[in-house]
Design a protein that fits this description.
It contains three helices and ten strands, in the order E-H-E-H-E-E-E-E-H-E-E-E-E. The chain is α/β, with parallel strands linked by helices. The chain has a single domain, classed as Rossmann fold (3-Layer(aba) Sandwich). Strands 2, 3, 4, 5, 6, 7 and 8 form a seven-stranded mixed sheet that branches. The protein has a three-stranded antiparallel sheet with strand order 1-10-9, covered by helices on one side. Helix 1 packs across helix 2. It starts with a strand and ends in a 10-residue tail after the last strand. The structure holds inosinic acid and magnesium ion. The site of magnesium ion has 2 residues, from loops.
């Protein structure tokens, strides 16, 4: 795996520091909104599988409130493609989000289609509040408008892997965010 890495864009220490700060910020904002007397079951984190698994695992450990996790799976990069082919939800969104304080979590905001899809489906259930947290935000023109309240790092328009992000299903376990050597990438036409 390591021989396929071209350059480390964001190393594990910077990620850890930033994720901690994001968690503390989200916790402070939720506390302000819900208040210390909040009853259990009001906060739901929704990580978008599979890319958000590493990020959400670290992020929620900085949130000292009772919360639940409701996962949703979306696929947008089929196989060895480097370009999103449009987001499609796999399976169901968690139900019973009405009146809840929802935080949608994803690895990277790119075209915006994935987050726009999930955001709109969540909003249909009329949550009490909705926030979006992404580890990375790519500096590109969005195809769907999405405002993420919490952004870990803004990055240029490069294809990256690690800390949950994959290429063809691999490299999610890399602790840093990195680019791949060209020879590790086999692009497909479709
Ligand atoms: P969007 O729908 O174009 O915003 O793309 C978001 C999804 O595409 C993310 O959830 C990622 O899974 C995936 N994605 C976008 N950019 C990258 C990347 O550079 N590396 C790996 N996956 C990516
Ligand atoms: Mg993904």
């Amino acid at each position: 795996m390591l021989r396929d890495i071209d350059a480390i864009l964001i190393d594990r220490d910077r990620i850890a520091d930033r994720v901690r700060a994001m968690g503390e910020q989200i916790a402070a904002d939720l506390l302000r909104e819900i208040g210390p007397g909040a009853s259990a079951g009001q906060i739901v984190f929704i990580p978008i599988l599979t890319g958000a698994v590493v990020f959400v695992a670290d992020l929620i450990r900085h949130i000292p409130f009772k919360l639940s996790l409701g996962v949703v799976a979306v696929s947008s990069y089929p196989g060895r493609s480097l370009e999103s082919k449009g987001a499609a939800i796999r399976g169901d969104l968690p139900r019973d989000l009405a009146g809840k304080h929802v935080v949608i979590v994803d690895d990277v905001l790119d075209s915006g289609r994935t987050l726009a899809l999930i955001r709109d489906l969540v909003l249909e259930q009329q949550p009490a509040s909705l926030r979006i947290a992404v580890l990375l935000s790519k500096d590109v023109a969005r195809e769907a408008r999405v405002d993420a309240e919490y952004v870990g790092f803004s990055i240029p328009d490069a294809f990256v892997v690690g800390y949950g992000l994959d290429y063809d299903g691999y490299y999610r376990n890399l602790p840093d965010v990195a680019t791949l050597k060209p020879e590790a990438i086999e692009q497909t036409s479709g």
